[in-house]
Amino acid sequence: MECGYEESHVIGNKEDKIEFTFDVKAMHAILSELIESKFIKVMHCKTTKEIWDKLKTINEGNEKVKRDKLQGYII
Question: Residue 61, SS3?
């Protein structure tokens, strides 16, 4: 996912409504499958993109953690 729905107070046209609907459905799908410990870590996020990025960091780690894991496989 490259971008997330930017929350606005007024949904003007049909495309905005469709984008909002897809974002809400995606957010619900992700949140409904999380265990409580991970849900607590992402419950403050406002967009699906934020949730996705946070979960990615939680599960994969940041760049330093990834590099350390790869070095462990090489040895």
Answer: coil
* Residues 27 and 5 sit within 8 Å (Cβ to Cβ): no
C-alpha to C-alpha distances, 57 to 10, 15, 36, 66, nearest whole angstrom: 32, 31, 17, 10
How far apart, in Å, are the Cα atoms of 36 and each of 15, 20, 39, 54, 57? Answer: 34, 26, 5, 15, 17
Distance CA 53, CA 59 (A): 10
pLDDT digits (tens, 9 = 90+) for 2-16: 566 555 556 678 888
Domain range list for the chain: 14-74
